[in-house]
Amino acid sequence: VFNNQAVxxxxxxxHYYITNNLRIVMDEDPQRTHKKRKAGAKFNKKKKRKQExxxxxxxxxxxxxxxKAFSFQAVNKTARxxxxxxxxxxxxxxxxxxxxxxxxxxxxxxxxxxxxxxxxTTLIRSLVKHYTKQNVNQVKGxxxxxxxxxxxxxxxECPNDISSMIDVAKVADLVLLMVDANFGFEMEIFExxxxxxxHGLPRIMGVLTHLDMLKTGKAMNRTKRTLKHRFWTEVHNGxxxxxxxxxxxxxxxxxxxLNLARFISVMKFKVxxxxxxxxxxxxxxxxxxxxxxxxxxNKKCDRSVGLYGWVRGANLKNDTSVHVCxxxxxxxxxxxxxxxxxxxxxxxxxxxxxxxx
Length: 357
Prior knowledge:
- The strands form 6 sheets. This protein has a 6-stranded mixed sheet, sandwiched between helices.
- 17% of the residues are buried.
- By secondary structure, it is α/β, with parallel strands linked by helices.
- Strand 4 (143-148) and strand 5 (151-157) form a beta hairpin.
- It is built from 11 helices and 16 strands.
- 35% of the residues lie in helices and 20% in strands.
- It has helices at residues 41-55, 62-65, 75-91, 120-132, 162-171, 187-198, 217-234, 254-266, 273-277, 292-297, 345-356; strands spanning 5-9, 16-20, 108-113, 143-148, 151-157, 174-180, 203-209, 241-243, 247-248, 251-252, 280-281, 285-288, 305-308, 311-312, 321-324, 328-331.
- It starts with a strand and ends with a helix.
């Protein structure tokens, strides 16, 4: 319809008639559905093709349909790839080792290592607070806490001297490597990693501190990413790295400490052959057992010293020569068995049941 004029065509003659003021109303029929053929040449052709496909199904797998397209194009290159894959798989094979751990194992030794003013003491205080719900104002010597039904941990803070790092690397089961995120990796960290590699490389987990000193979130994310890749380069790819951001009441955030404590509680430690075949003790307490009268007479007299601690590795016997770090070689005069000062919860419950009967 154009300007109130209608154009009507007839199919027979092909002529067009123009009428004025003509209104044409057409019924809008719904769209008709497609009717499939049920007879005829096309129907028979499709039926025959369908029957042939059912009788002889075509394999949809391209490798089976055209095997030449997926064969080896370069034999030497493929051989190198296969050899490399087999070598990588062979490196993962380990000789089975005899687990000499006793029924009630000694506490796992967790060493906290890092440069000065990076938060080592604060981390130990936070972990002790998490496990025992008690505050520790000063950290003097090793601290042993019960971390689970069948596990105890002894936390040791490593001083910043080469001798202490060597001693800690020899006995530590797990190392918490503290890194000041505001400063980056320092010389003490690289020194300890080199020392640890020479003594079997125990389990190492990184801990980033002072993240709250970074001004923006963008700078924090960039620093985390950079230090993580640097840490992986020094230790191994995928090494665990924890972030301690904020502090409250001179302790780290409870949620960050909880995540770290969970990993410590379930961590599986490597069995080092040298440690398993040699007895050693990390001394928890030292006691001077010399007669006071002899000390009054001569202050430079020979002393009898009692050393308390859990025996790790093999069995310790009397009259055995031992090396005391910083003192020298000496002979043990007596070894005595004492009651366990930090009983496991499972063993305590078992003892109570036995006592009740």
